[in-house]
């Protein structure tokens, strides 16, 4: 990412709260792996389905 204006940054939808969030410099190398908009949502992530 080379110096983009804030309105042109990539966005994703948080899997917990369903709100859009924008790319951040600290996520530059792991953007493809980012799923949550914040630590709060990351800790509230949905429980994995149990198999019997």
Any chance you could write out the topology, listing elements then pairs?
Elements (H helix, E strand, L loop, with lengths): L10 E3 L6 E3 L16 H5 L9
Antiparallel strand pairs: 1-2
> Which spans have pLDDT < 50 for at least 5 consecutive residues?
none
Count of runs of 4 or more consecutive helical residues: 1
Summarize the amount of helix as a percent range: under 10%
Describe the strand arrangement of the main beta sheet, using strand numbers. 1-2
The span between the termini is: 45 Å
Describe the structure.
This protein has 52 residues and is largely without helices or strands. The protein has one helix at residues 39-43, and strands at residues 11-13, 20-22. The chain is built from one helix and two strands; from the N terminus they run ββα. It has a two-stranded antiparallel ribbon. A hairpin with a 6-residue loop joins strand 1 (11-13) and strand 2. The longest helix is centred in the C-terminal third of the chain and has 5 residues, at 39-43. It is elongated and about 50 Å long. It starts with 10 loop residues before the first strand and ends in a 9-residue tail after the last helix.
List its traits.
52 residues, little secondary structure, 1 helix, 12% strand, elongated, DUF2256 domain-containing protein, UCP037205
């Amino acid at each position: 990412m080379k110096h983009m204006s804030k309105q042109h940054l990539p966005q994703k939808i948080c899997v917990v709260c369903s709100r859009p969030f924008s790319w951040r410099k600290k996520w530059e190398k792991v953007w493809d792996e980012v799923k949550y908009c914040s630590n709060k949502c990351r800790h509230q992530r949905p429980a994995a389905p149990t198999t019997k």
